[in-house]
Amino acid sequence: VFFGSWGSANVPIPWKEVETKLFALNVVSEVVLQEGQAFDFSVIMQLVAVLSASRSEELKGFMHIVYRSLADVIGSYSKWISAFQTNARPLLLFLAAGISEAVSSNACASALRKICEDASALIDEPSNLEILMWIGEALEKRHLPLEDEEEVVGAISLILGSVSNKELKNNLLARLLSSSYEAIGKLIDGDNNHSLIHNPATYTQILSSATRGLYRMGTVFSHLPVPLPTNPAGDDPIFALLRVFWPMLEKLFRSEHMENGNLSTAACRALSLAIQSSGQHFVTLLPQVLDCLSTNFVSFQNHECYIRTASVVIEEFGHKDEYGPLFVTTFERFSQAASVRALNSSYICDQEPDLVEAYTNFASTFVRTSRKEVLAASGALLEVSFQKAAICCTAMHRGAALAAMSYLSCFLEECLASLLGYTTSIPEGSFNAMAIQVISHSGEGLVSNVVYALLGVSAMSRVHKCATILQQLAAICSISERTSGKAILSWESLQGWLHSAVSLFLILIGFGLQLQTHPSGFLFLQFQIT
Known about the structure:
Layout: H1 15-27, H2 29-35, H3 42-53, H4 62-76, H5 78-81, H6 85-99, H7 105-118, H8 120-123, H9 126-137, H10 139-142, H11 146-161, H12 166-188, H13 190-197, H14 200-223, H15 237-253, H16 261-277, H17 286-299, H18 305-317, H19 324-335, H20 338-341, H21 346-351, H22 353-369, H23 372-376, H24 379-392, H25 398-419, H26 431-455, H27 463-480, H28 491-508, E1 511-517, E2 523-529
Antiparallel strand pairs: 1-2
């Protein structure tokens, strides 16, 4: 079925035929794997041996394509090929060589990840670990595309995370990240700053190296197993990494280099992944972390990555009572930034869709994860953010509008769920009292903007969100009527908002409106051309 009798040393290998059959074997891999009938992969390993033994001058032109096709096959059938202990080392050496070539780097990086996922127990041997470290330590010089580098670092981290010897694991992780530490160290070294500013070429190169180093660090964090809360911190490799990582990152955050967008994005990504992977190890660092994020956003307001990373912090630790005031302060600093205050029209929202998404997603996370006592004390802040979101839901940019609507719906859902627990009296200073106050102040603008969104561009993609918001608002008004909040928010409030909003828009487009009440108590609209 495969290659015939080219295995003899006297018979030249028909490389074009080999590449064609490798391509075909890769194409049908899904079907073959589903059938579950493994075949003899000795021919594949022979090809691995032949190409690995070839001199660099022999692997040119078409041979690079053969190399890539063979790597694709190894990746597709990795579970079967790597099942044999004897295959691990030849495969690692083959993929290590292919990663350095532009044509085959992507296929080899992907295959390496799959091999490490499927055969971690077989690769966890000293000789194989050294090959992986050789690959990892050479990344700084190879300048692979970021996606390929992430595959490689992720594969290596996966294996290192499974090493049982804690001291060996920590040493190998330190070796893997040593070039990253060095690259960032060059950037934050105070003695170098003056010379870097006056040497743009060198500064650009160091910025690029530091950015790549941060990406590698984030990838390592994301592939290490999350520590158990019961494990001592000293036994956790993530804790050992954090002791080096955070002081270095904090110094970087407080430097003028963060004006660079790529560096900021990489630093925020690394921090987000470190927080998600480190369990409770980051708790004591929250004040410094959030101060860095909010300060840098105020300084560099075109870098919304700081808000996105703060959302990760709130998601992980928003339930902790003792940090509630800290989260509120962070929310206030974001909300008071000039770029956020400027989100007062759909036009501005369309100019800054990433900022709208980041800010409203942060607000959603804050409302969803914070304690009700913290939310109750944040009424003025939530009202401002709620009104901003109501404006942003009219944006033409679909992502920005839907993110704003998601926040509106999230706030209303939390309010509705909380109100269902009360039958009559609503205590002053409670979350429910605050929520009713916010809705009564913002309801008219909310309804007006939701109706406008339904009349705007791409309205069909927003129908479900708009309908959900109006249903939630109607339910809240209905429940509020049965409580002490009736004087502030009632069914009549919603009727007035609907009448005002729809009347205005129909007048603008040349229509008349009749707002009528069904005998069941529900409102319906009757449109007439005027």
